[in-house]
Amino acid sequence: MTALFNSTLLLTLMILTIPLMNLPLSMKPKTAVKMAFFITMIPLIMFISSNTESVITNWSWTMTSTFTMSMSLKFDQYSIMFIPVALYVTWSILEFTHWYMTTDPYITKFFKYLLIFLIAMMTLVTANNMFQFFIGWEGVGIMSFMLIGWWHSRLEACSSALQAIIYNRAGDIGLILTMAWMATNLNSWELQQIFSHTNPIPLLPLLSLTLAATGKSAQFGLHPWLPAAMEGPTPVSALLHSSTMVVAGIFLLIRTHPMLSTNNTALTVCLCLGALTTLFTAICATTQNDIKKIIAFSTSSQLGLMMVTIGLNQPHLAFLHITMHAFFKAMLFLCSGLIIHNLNNEQDIRKMGGLHKPLPITSSCLTIGNLALSGFPFLTGFYSKDIIIETMNTSHMNAWALLLTLTATSLTAAYSLRITILVQMGQPRFQPMPPINENYNTATNPIIRLAAGSIIAGLLISLNTTPMKTPQMTMPHHMKLSALIMTIMGLTLALELITMTNKSTKPSKTHTFSNLLMYFNTLIHRSLTLLNLKFSQNTATHLTDLIWYENIGPKWMTKSQTNPITTMSSQKGLIKIYLTSFLLSITMLLLT
Amino acid sequence: MTPLHLSYFMAFIISMTGFMLHRTSLISTLLCLEAMMLSLFIATSLCPIQLQTTSFMLNPMLILTFSACEASLGLSLLVASSRTHNPNNLQNLNLLQC
């Protein structure tokens, strides 16, 4: 049976590379991903029924005799559950891309980029040693750069791609630091050997792991690249920046959680950072006007929630949230892509409205997605989000982080309601005669597929995974219902939003504060760089040139010498008279 | 005084007189300065030859080197002052007071 397991898994990974080779009869990327998804059902069912896990080690890259490295693939609970989910979502997105990018002349290249990204993500997820993980990590970073800057003649797209690379690189410092520490202190990059050390790991590598996750998963401090990454095409946003790439940082923390669980300070750092991120981005999401940016901020908020779960020492719940979040977030992005295309590339929700009748499938799926996101009972989001909030309420932790996360939960409901109301309901606010038509199967079938996933995947996944830690079974009524109460509170408070579309008032200071991302972008991207450049200009020209060369160097010497000379000199410079008198005195001396 | 000694002594006196009684331009002053240095050179090179003292034979070389330096310095001062002030005659050197 293990032969079937291993061979189907390797076949899945190989099939993904076939469209990239220049074979005469090559298959299309969508077909390859679809086949890979169906083939990967076999090991998934084997895992669910008999908990089969395997580690496949191929050739070795041994560099020295003391430090061994080999290419090894680890298929444990996390990889086996993640690969089918990722392939399902990617299959739907690739099918949607056929409709979305039909008019693009380089559509084949786009598919190839998406496929290379998927392969890099698979490398990351199945890596058994840190070197292979790093290869996948960098691969997804590079493909993210190339895909965000797909429309590279657009200035904002280029600057957003640059932002993504710079912020990801800042996080990579953490990963490289961890790898260096592991190589020098634990003598290996293989996960099995690293986890065999049960004594407490010092804080430095764990903090640098957190830094790596901050960079890749857009936690507070290195977060601006994620909203800016919405400059890329919608399939890119759906694949990279909602389901797969941004969870790579959280996945790193899940993989290395045996190291993290030994040190409580590191866990507290993760907890507080995640809580701060989730509230910050939820606040920013409530006042954004671009539909893709709202969904991007909601992704960031859910990533903060996953970070909080890691901080609670519950990596399995974080992984559950990753898998379930992928479904409805990708679907939200695909729905928004369909709406944007149908309204002639209009992305501002203040200019959308009344799409309930013209786009029935899309608007119903949008509603399903928003409900799943807010944690509506028994949809997908409920099975992970509710358990996380219950665990948070009943565990011994920081009350401030708890408060922030609960507030963010209510704000989630608020901005989801905002999207639903402003996009679908009311009178239409878009331009007359837009090309509204959703009768294309390639566009709506993926959305319906993902909607089915958003409804039942939560139940299926949570029923089929064995819980690693015992969940808290008994708690008071108010704690059990706290997530639901916060969501309903957020909804009722946000119903005020219904009246906002037909009143145009000057935005208050809090509104501007939240709309401009709490001035983080302005401060860090504009003010700080201006300060830096002015400082360097001051040092280079004023300090070096003007002061050192002129005031302290040669010119000061001349000035300081001529002043005493003029005051102290008693000669008048009448050279001829002096010389003549000298001659006269010499001759008189010689004659006498 | 031997005729040899007289020759360079008189050369020195005449060029010193020319140095002090210059009228037209500063270049004649510099030329007379060079002539003084030349006569000094001849004097210091003939003296150790006659008296057969080898330890003074390096002396004329040193004098020559330093006279070259001072001549170049004088020439550069002449050029510098003639570029900013009137380049023709430079008789009134008291105008160069700072």
UniProtKB/TrEMBL annotation, chain A:
Sequence ranges assigned to domain NADH:quinone oxidoreductase/Mrp antiporter transmembrane in this UniProt record: 127-410
Gene Ontology CC terms: mitochondrial inner membrane
InterPro entries in alphabetical order: NADH_DH_su5_C, NADHpl_OxRdtase_5_subgr, ND/Mrp_TM, NU5C-like, Proton_antipo_N
Subcellular location: Mitochondrion inner membrane
Membrane topology qualifier: Multi-pass membrane protein
GO molecular function: NADH dehydrogenase (ubiquinone) activity; NADH dehydrogenase activity
Keyword Membrane carried by entry: yes
Domain NADH-Ubiquinone oxidoreductase (complex I) chain 5 N-terminal: residue ranges: 61-111
Stated name of the protein: NADH-ubiquinone oxidoreductase chain 5
Enzyme Commission identifier(s): 7.1.1.2
Membership in a protein family: Belongs to the complex I subunit 5 family.
Purpose: Core subunit of the mitochondrial membrane respiratory chain NADH dehydrogenase (Complex I) which catalyzes electron transfer from NADH through the respiratory chain, using ubiquinone as an electron acceptor. Essential for the catalytic activity and assembly of complex I.
Catalytic activity as recorded in UniProt: a ubiquinone + NADH + 5 H(+)(in) = a ubiquinol + NAD(+) + 4 H(+)(out)
Domain NADH dehydrogenase subunit 5 C-terminal: 415-591
Lineage: Eukaryota, Metazoa, Chordata, Craniata, Vertebrata
Top EC group: translocase
Record-annotated membrane-spanning stretches: 6-23, 35-57, 77-98, 110-127, 234-254, 266-287, 318-340, 361-379, 399-421, 442-461, 481-499, 573-591
Record keywords, A-Z: Electron transport, Membrane, Mitochondrion, Mitochondrion inner membrane, NAD, Respiratory chain, Translocase, Transmembrane, Transmembrane helix, Transport, Ubiquinone
Species of origin: Pelodiscus sinensis (Chinese softshell turtle)
Any one of the GO BP annotations: ATP synthesis coupled electron transport
Automatic annotation (TrEMBL), chain B:
Catalytic reactions of this protein: a ubiquinone + NADH + 5 H(+)(in) = a ubiquinol + NAD(+) + 4 H(+)(out)
Short name of any one Pfam family annotated for the protein: Oxidored_q2
A GO molecular function held by the record: NADH dehydrogenase (ubiquinone) activity
Bilayer disposition of the protein: Multi-pass membrane protein
Keyword field: Electron transport, Membrane, Mitochondrion, Mitochondrion inner membrane, NAD, Respiratory chain, Translocase, Transmembrane, Transmembrane helix, Transport, Ubiquinone
Keyword Transmembrane applies: yes
Described purpose of this protein according to its UniProt entry: Core subunit of the mitochondrial membrane respiratory chain NADH dehydrogenase (Complex I) which catalyzes electron transfer from NADH through the respiratory chain, using ubiquinone as an electron acceptor. Part of the enzyme membrane arm which is embedded in the lipid bilayer and involved in proton translocation.
Family that this chain belongs to: Belongs to the complex I subunit 4L family.
Subcellular location: Mitochondrion inner membrane; Mitochondrion membrane
Gene name, Swiss-Prot/TrEMBL: ND4L
Main subcellular location of this protein, as a coarse class: mitochondrion
Species of the source: Pelodiscus sinensis
Record's protein name: NADH-ubiquinone oxidoreductase chain 4L
Bilayer-spanning residue ranges: 29-51, 57-80
Gene Ontology, cellular component aspect: mitochondrial inner membrane; NADH dehydrogenase complex
Entry EC number(s): 7.1.1.2
Top-rank lineage group of the source organism: Eukaryota
GO biological-process terms attached to the record: ATP synthesis coupled electron transport
